[in-house]
């Protein structure tokens, strides 16, 4: 009886059987109270959430401009003329690439520091596969195939969807020069955005690679079409060619950006979480390009957030989007969650009553 007394604090008022029932009931009520409190909190959470796609009617801006990331790399080998032509065909308004300088001073397109991933350098120059791509002359680079890897490795799982004609064309792609790339952009009136890699120590053009690249740009395209991303010697470059659209890859204060003549930011898509900051930049005519956005739902967020352009691998998919995947007014959002909460509350109550 002593043990039972300690287990049941209500022994002064009830017999032992009734006492244990009261304890059970109190515990059930306590558990139910905790459950209902947690449930009520969950009901309130959506009402405090934020999404750029919850906007007042009529405030959605234009769709972000599409810039092909290394062209259209899901449809053709990246950084090849075929890839950029495919991006143009898919109605991309800009072309993005990566530039380095050959050992004899020819700017060419290559993303990686070596040639192993996107060329057959192991077959042509088996003893030089470890070398930096810029340590090859332009004549040597022209001996390489820059397309067969795309068909054999199928990086996006899209090679099987290519026509026989496209497969043959992809198979025979070569490493393009910057001049060839710019001619495609100039002919189609596309914007160009490129990163420029400095050659390693011992390279003949390590000190003059900026000037060498700038000369090619000025000779093959209208400077106003170029989003100039390299940060080195930016003020000097702007002085030489003020028509270039100076573009920065880093967030900074408005004063710092204006001092550098920055008119566009090239930022990772995670910058969507700094939506107020992007709006602040836009208020002083500094637009934002976000990379790399290839999923329609992420493009939808960028669109709602007011990004002016995005760099994408799936330009052929995003160019077909005529509106965001989801968009609602604050009133519609609140109404949706209230109705959802009411329906779920009714179902939970019915389950409790049935179970009881």
UniProtKB/TrEMBL annotation:
It is found in: Membrane. The chain crosses the membrane at residues 20-45, 334-354. CDD domains: GDPD_GDE_2_3_6 (cd08574). Keywords: Glycoprotein, Hydrolase, Membrane, Transmembrane, Transmembrane helix. PROSITE patterns: GP_PDE. InterPro entries: GP_PDE_dom, PLC-like_Pdiesterase_TIM-brl. It is a multi-pass membrane protein. It comes from the Eukaryota. One of its GO terms (cellular component) is membrane. Residues 64-322 form the GP-PDE domain. One of its GO terms (biological process) is lipid metabolic process. It holds the Pfam family GDPD. The keyword Manganese does not apply. GO terms for molecular function: glycerophosphodiester phosphodiesterase activity. Belongs to the glycerophosphoryl diester phosphodiesterase family. PANTHER family: GLYCEROPHOSPHODIESTER PHOSPHODIESTERASE DOMAIN-CONTAINING PROTEIN 4, GLYCEROPHOSPHORYL DIESTER PHOSPHODIESTERASE. This is Glycerophosphodiester phosphodiesterase domain containing 4a. It comes from Oryzias sinensis.
């Amino acid at each position: 009886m002593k043990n039972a007394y300690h287990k049941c604090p209500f022994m002064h008022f009830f017999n032992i059987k009734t006492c244990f029932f009261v304890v059970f009931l109190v515990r059930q009520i306590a558990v139910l109270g905790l459950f209902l409190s947690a449930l009520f909190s969950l009901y309130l959470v959506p009402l405090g959430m934020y999404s750029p796609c919850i906007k007042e009617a009529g405030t959605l801006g234009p769709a972000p401009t599409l810039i092909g990331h290394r062209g259209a790399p899901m449809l053709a080998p990246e950084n090849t003329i075929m890839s950029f032509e495919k991006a143009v065909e898919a109605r991309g308004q800009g072309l993005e690439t990566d530039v380095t300088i050959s050992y004899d001073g020819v700017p060419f397109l290559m993303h990686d520091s070596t040639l192993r991933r996107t060329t057959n350098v192991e077959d042509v120059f088996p003893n030089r596969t470890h070398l930096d791509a810029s340590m090859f002359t332009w004549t040597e680079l022209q001996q390489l195939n820059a397309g067969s890897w795309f068909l054999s490795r199928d990086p996006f799982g899209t090679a099987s969807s290519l026509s026989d004609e496209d497969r043959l064309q992809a198979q025979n792609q070569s490493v393009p020069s910057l001049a060839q790339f710019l001619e495609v952009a100039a002919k189609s009136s596309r914007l160009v955005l490129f990163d420029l890699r400095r050659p390693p120590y011992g390279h003949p053009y390590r000190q003059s690679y900026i000037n060498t690249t700038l000369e090619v740009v000025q000779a093959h395209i209208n400077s106003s079409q170029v989003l100039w991303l390299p940060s080195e010697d930016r003020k000097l470059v702007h002085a030489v060619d003020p028509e270039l659209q100076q573009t920065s890859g880093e967030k900074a204060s408005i004063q710092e950006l204006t001092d550098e003549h920055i008119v566009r930011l090239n930022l990772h898509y995670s910058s969507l979480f700094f939506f107020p900051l992007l709006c602040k930049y836009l208020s002083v005519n500094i637009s934002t390009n976000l990379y790399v956005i290839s999923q329609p739902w992420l493009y939808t967020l960028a669109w709602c957030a007011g990004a002016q352009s995005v760099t994408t691998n799936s330009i052929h998919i995003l160019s077909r989007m005529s509106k965001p995947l989801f968009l609602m007014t604050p009133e519609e959002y609140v109404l949706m969650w209230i109705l959802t909460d009411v329906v779920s509350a009714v179902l939970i109550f019915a389950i409790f009553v049935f179970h009881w």
